[in-house]
Amino acid sequence: MRTEQPKMIYLKDYQVPDYLIDETHLTFELFDDHTLVHAQLVMRRNPAAGSGLPPLVLDGQQLELLSLALDDRALSAGDYQLDDSHLTVQPSTASFVIDSSVRIHPESNTALEGLYKSSGMFCTQCEAEGFRKITYYLDRPDVMSKFTTTLSAAQHDYPVLLSNGNPIASGSEGDGRHWATWEDPFMKPAYLFALVAGDLWCVEDSFTTMNQRDVALRIYVEPENIDKCQHAMDSLKKSMKWDEEVYGREYDLDIFMIVAVNDFNMGAMENKGLNIFNSSCVLAKAETATDAAHQRVEAVVAHEYFHNWSGNRVTCRDWFQLSLKEGFTVFRDAEFSADMHSRTVKRIEDVAYLRTHQFAEDAGPMAHPVRPDAFMEISNFYTLTVYEKGSEVVRMIRTLVGAEGFRKGSDLYFGRHDGQAVTCDDFIRAMEEANGIDLTQFKRWYSQAGTPRLEVSESYDAAANSYRLQFRQSCPATPEQAQKQPFVIPVELALLDAQGMELPLQLVGEDTAVQGARVVQVTEAEQAFTFINLAEKPLPSLLRGFSAPIKLSFPYSRDQLMFLMQHDSDGFNRWEAGQQLSVQVLQDLIGQHQRGEALVLDQRLVDACRTLLADDSLDQAMVAEMLSLPGEAYLTEISSVADVEAIHAAREFARKQLSQALFDLLWQRYQSNREVSRTSAYVAEAEHFARRSLQNIALSYLMLSGKAEVLAACLEQFEDADNMTERLAALAVLVNSPFEVEKAAALTSFAEFFKDNPLVMDQWFSVQAACALPGALQRVEQLMQHPAFTLKNPNKVRALIGAFAGQNLQGFHQADGSGYRFLADQVITLNALNPQIASRLLAPLTRWGKYGPARQAQMKCELQRILASGELSSDVYEVVSKSLAG
Ligand code: B3K
Ligand code: ZN
């Protein structure tokens, strides 16, 4: 907890470290009621930092200092200064050795940062600034050191002792304790340090690298989970191969380990050679994990593995550069997933997610640039903007320089900066130099916050056979940034003829026309592009593949959107046309609801969906994506003032209408897909994900009919499915249905059967928390009393409270403010237990700007109540204070 108001830290204040740590020798004595940490730091004055010998200021928090020595001379209290976050010593020579011993308490660490215990095992989480809770250190990413780590613990309870690098020695201490020493030959910052001690089993495999080196691969889990590791292992091997083929990056140690832990603040952590994972991102088998979970495991395993180069070998100079490793690595894992499965479906999922959640962040009080220039608490900046928008920025660079140019740039970047801690500017410079281009204006994507808008209009000159597209860009003000300079916006586009064929493109001044799509760069506030030699007025297909993270508008008619839905040669834009059509139709319904009129659905939406469903040749995943209407959260994001009730009513009305009008087609699709599921074994591959996703969305529409045969089919799927994807989808459909008896029975039998599997129980909590039927808050409050629930486990908090506040917009935004009050109460409790989780949970309350005056007042009142609730962590304080200032 803070003792004074947290300070803002600014990028402009960056200074190189005064001292360096060449070697770090750590010894951990792990006991059940405390841990002793001895650190020997071989240090020297940083030659880049100037002359003289300034005081050495080490970071350290919640440490009990037991002894301190400088070059073997024991220091006494008068020889150093100690406060609650620093230890200051005065060196007298340019090179010296510091020895410290501290006592810490992992057994009572509920913040899950530093060294802590999870289900009986010891583990660590050091990024961003957790290492300072382990020992006194220069806890900043530009201080890189060679680490040797010895762990000692009771052999019986902790037979497995792991740290970074390679094991070099181990032995027994004779008193029931044993020890092991690990050495990491690579220089690394402290945030990549890890240790694990526990009673774990492992699945073992190996990988032969492109230079024929054998790497041992191990996944460590609690014994009962040993049957759920194969998918993660397969994913790891695919990732290693892909990074060699696509980026030329080879793994560098003799061993690569993943450890699954139950209590973890986020998805996973890329510690050098010893990745620590939330068990939800490792464990997967058909019976207990959904298709979505299988895909998440694959993506997170890849993401953390890819960090070995984009993050570990080349790391960040300071935390403002976080997107240097995160944006780039998200881009890398997205491309990996696209290569493993359906590229178009992956892009659709990512864009839908970005638009719903990152755009909302950009429009709220916590909006910040991809490279922030100030923060109070760095943990608050592991955001959708740094990750997802950061990935879009890297994607735009690739669009601008092409795949080959991008590879040249990444080779230069990795080669030039291997072993260094660098900045986003260094990444850009490598791309510029490898491609002979100037990205100066492009870099505004790193420094300007907010989602740019691009208004496009057209004019066709029949006499001149020319077609002009006029672009106007703007970007709304964000906190701290009122005015924005124009961005470089790559717009991939094609012009289609009346059959949907791509017309040859020739801009005024060009000698020849080129067939197919091309990328134009919008760099001015207003800019026009004139295409010539067009004998008829074309229909533009704009921003293909979502070539920039912006809000583009073009005055398409609904008939044009229907045409694009069927004929655009770009799969992403076919989906996008469907989204735009659905949004227009839903916005009509929202307006009707607000005016108290009877709701009337534009039949064109029904016709469009009918055409899709009737066409057996289409990718079923695409059909499923197109049938899923834009979510309530997205409809909220694109509203200037979100009307919670109208949005829900409109969407539910459209779903019911579609269900009625398309019942037979949906029923056929459902039955034939379910038949395949029934008669074949589960496979975690794209074509099977596609079949099950269409089957499950069909079931959710069909259930709206209330027909007995659909209920019977749903119960059959729930009871007989051999995989969690089908079982959970059937459960969710039942939970959202009016069949109270069947619903209760299904919930009970599911919980009974899976009570010992915490990850499955998380799904059980989520399905109920997200159910929009009346009484949601009471259900959630009751579920908090369930024996499987605990506020101490972040997965449980996310599954129940997070799903309620983030997905159940009806329940959370109850007009009486009860949802807000509930969330604020949980944040206040969690602030003391786990500040990072408390601060993340807060996000829905910070979005008050989207709602009408009554809800705004209630939400702000809850934020005030949190602010006044006592001693706040810097995490919660920063988010609450910025939200109230916004
Ligand atoms: N680098 C970690 C995130 C650490 C978050 C610390 N609050 C996981 C990842 O992005 O790969
Ligand atoms: Zn990452």
UniProtKB/TrEMBL annotation:
**By its UniProt entry, which NCBIfam families does this protein fall under?**
pepN_proteo
Taxonomically, which superkingdom? Bacteria
Pfam families, sorted: DUF3458, DUF3458_C, Peptidase_M1, Peptidase_M1_N
In what residue span(s) does the Aminopeptidase N-like N-terminal domain sit? 104-192
Q: Which organism is it from?
A: Pseudomonas leptonychotis
Per UniProt, residues of the Peptidase M1 alanyl aminopeptidase Ig-like fold domain are 450-553
The keyword Metal-binding is assigned to this record: yes
Q: Which reaction does it catalyse?
A: Release of an N-terminal amino acid, Xaa-|-Yaa- from a peptide, amide or arylamide. Xaa is preferably Ala, but may be most amino acids including Pro (slow action). When a terminal hydrophobic residue is followed by a prolyl residue, the two may be released as an intact Xaa-Pro dipeptide
> What cofactor does this chain's UniProt record say it requires?
Zn(2+)
Is Translocase among the key words of this record? no
Question: What is the protein named?
Answer: Aminopeptidase N
Q: What family, per the record?
A: Belongs to the peptidase M1 family.
Task: Give one GO biological process term.
Answer: proteolysis
| Limits of the Peptidase M1 membrane alanine aminopeptidase domain | 232-445
List the Gene3D superfamilies: 2.60.40.1840, 3.30.2010.30, Neutral Protease Domain 2 (1.10.390.10), Peptidase M1, alanyl aminopeptidase, C-terminal domain (1.25.50.10), tricorn interacting facor f3 domain (2.60.40.1730)
Keywords carried by this UniProt record: Aminopeptidase, Hydrolase, Metal-binding, Metalloprotease, Protease, Zinc
What Gene Ontology molecular-function terms does this entry list?
Answer: alanyl aminopeptidase activity; metallopeptidase activity; zinc ion binding
User: What Enzyme Commission number(s) apply to this enzyme?
Assistant: 3.4.11.2
Give the Peptidase M1 alanyl aminopeptidase C-terminal domain ranges: 559-885
- Record's function text: Aminopeptidase N is involved in the degradation of intracellular peptides generated by protein breakdown during normal growth as well as in response to nutrient starvation.
